[in-house]
TrEMBL record:
It comes from the Bacteria. GO terms for molecular function: peptide transmembrane transporter activity. Keywords: Signal, Transport. It comes from Aureimonas phyllosphaerae. It is found in: Periplasm. Residues 1-27 form the signal peptide. GO terms for biological process: peptide transport. PANTHER family: OLIGOPEPTIDE-BINDING PROTEIN APPA (PTHR30290:SF9), PERIPLASMIC BINDING COMPONENT OF ABC TRANSPORTER (PTHR30290). One of its GO terms (cellular component) is outer membrane-bounded periplasmic space. This is Peptide/nickel transport system substrate-binding protein/oligopeptide transport system substrate-binding protein.
Amino acid sequence: MLARLKRGAAALAISAAVLSAPMVAHAQEGDTITVTYKDDIATLDPAIGYDWQNFSMIKAIFDGLMDYEPGTAKLRPGLAESYEISPDGKVFTFKLRDGVKFHNGRAMTAEDVKYSFERTVNPATQSPGAGFLGSIEGFEAMQGGTATELSGVKILDPKTVQVTLSRPDATFLSVMALNFSFIVPKEEVEKSGADFGRNPVGTGAFKLAEWTLGQRLVLEKNPDYYREGAPKLGGITFEIGQEPVVSLLRVQNGEVDVPGDGIPPAKFREVMGNPAEAAQVVEGVQLHTGYITMNTKAAPFDDLKVRQAVNMAINKDRIVQIINGRATPANQPLPPTMPGYIQNFEGYKYDVEAAKKLLAEAGHEGGFETELFVANVDPQPRIAQAIQQDLAAIGIKASLQSLAQANVIAAGGSAEGAPMIWSGGMAWIADFPDPSNFYGPILGCSGAAEGGWNWAKYCNEALDEKAAAADAMVDPAKAAERAAAWGEVYKGVMADAPWVPVFNEKRYTMRSARMGGDDALYIDPVNTPMNYRYVETK
């Protein structure tokens, strides 16, 4: 991941400067809206961007072969007009739409699809999501440097692409709606080089009009967008460097339309206690788990007993209280609404004395010192302090490293990793609604590579094999069997204890009185946090 500029004490000064900045001047038609964020955006390159903040921005600028019905987790064709799947579930043939253009005016072709997939898989790109395309034939050869093309991607004609998989993959169509498989124009990538993430060109509903680092990013409507009726807005201005409390005040004053970082926990009860403001609050259930990672490749967390002790030391009920009860305690990686969730699973119960005993058995009777990394946006530092106190109760002295979100992500994805990370603010929200998505990128062996999101550096090859077997169940009639198979995978994960699953969080945000549309678009299950293509003003 690319590190983002850190905005701390200067945030209020930036806010004042941005406040006087003009609204987007490039919009074609339709109202413009203003969204605020505390931290700058790391990148808008779909092969690289993978944090909660830029996820929906990238989806506003780029498209994939597949898409979702607005505000739902129901797949539909995107840049592909139609598709066919072979009887063995290994060959997918996509027919591309007519009339799709990149923002530079050039028509999209099958060549662009092949190039985009290969760019993501190419190790030189250092894509944190390359593993999502791991079922395409030729993936291993490209990753290993023995091939420069994906043998499984064939261009049948300018409007037809055939993708052959090395194994059946029940998640493949969902992956085609994920940003790592979004389509980019080769000439623009080559022109911008490493700066393509700052100069993005896609086929999406919006295109980049302006980006002043640390201050604001402006998107304008793409008048040539292929979907009729989208986007609903003429443009979006993202104001950067705004503390969440200031953003909330500006929403209350009608100056801002959506606070990107949500409602600050310290202000939650105040907002909900005001009927007029509560009416503007949007609540949504997310496929989300917040967790603590432990670096399983470095001492002392390479010891199972140490990891189990940490699991027993964390008082999850107390942590949930810190965020005003806006979550439920978790005991496994999957959230309760995800297929594969294990009902009545006990997990590791909170037990300080048992945790101390395990530490002593591991040779750490006096405890040890370590570091806990945390994003510096409230309430994450307060949650980290509670974790710090829980660890101290069993003798573990954890110093807090409170950094900008992108810097925490960079530390976790580095080759050596970080000892411990509280994932809050970056915690896993499903890329697509399938149990596989909570495994490969954050618990599977492929995600443990440099730049990946498996911050525990955890790799259990036997579980990887079981996960692959579960994903080979392409037949919808085997959905229940497949969910049960995934449940067994996650039981195995918890036996190895690379994480402490802490809670499954609900998300709350606000929208200004002039904003319209379905609530589900503001906390979108797959365009997290917001579906910019379809939100609108009244």
